[in-house]
C-alpha cells in the first residue's frame, strides 16, 4: 500500500488539491485539481475537464516530476492544521472519469515521498517517509 489508510481518507476528504508541475521555462506551475487514490495501482490519479489540452498535462509529458499538496485547518493551531504532500513522478494514462463530464485523460502520480502533518490518528506533528520504487 502506497498511502496509509489515514492518508487515503484525508486525500478523499478534499474537494480540490494543488498540483505542482514543472513548466517549459523550468519554473513551477501550481494548479487546483481533483484527484482520487487508485488502490489498484497505488497511485494518485488527477482528473479534470479537457485534461489533454491543459498546461499541466503538457508539463508532465516534458518532465514527470510533480508534487501534490492538500491542507486544511480543523481546530486550534498548530494541532488543528493538517496537510499531506506527495512528491513523485507522473505519467499520462487513461481511465474512467470519476465525475460526469471529466475527460478520460489522467495524470497518474507514482508517490516517491509522502510528508504529512496531523493526518495519522494518535501521531501529532510532522511525519515523512520515502516510498520504495
Question: How would you describe the shape?
Answer: globular
- Assembly type of the chains comes to single chain
Q: What is the mean predicted local confidence, pLDDT?
A: 91
How many beta-strand runs? 7
Largest sheet properties: 6 strands, antiparallel, barrel
> What share of the residues lie within helices?
10-25%
N-to-C series of helices and strands: HEEEHEEEE
Lateral arrangement of strands in the main beta sheet: 1-2-3-6-5-4
Q: Which structural class best describes the helix and strand composition?
A: mainly beta
Q: Span between N and C termini?
A: 12 Å
- Could you list the spans in which at least 5 consecutive residues all have pLDDT below 50? none
> How many helix segments?
2
Strand content: over 45%
What is the gyration radius calculated from CA atoms?
A: 15 Å
Would you kindly provide a written description of the structure presented here, covering whatever features stand out?
It is a single chain. The chain is 13% helix and 47% strand. The relative contact order is 0.22. Strands 1-2-3-6-5-4 form a six-stranded antiparallel beta barrel. It has helices at 5-13, 55-62; strands at residues 17-22, 28-38, 43-47, 65-73, 81-94, 105-117, 126-130. It is globular and about 40 Å long. With 133 residues, it is mainly beta. The chain contains two helices and seven strands; from the N terminus they run αβββαββββ. A hairpin with a 7-residue loop joins strand 4 and strand 5 (81-94).
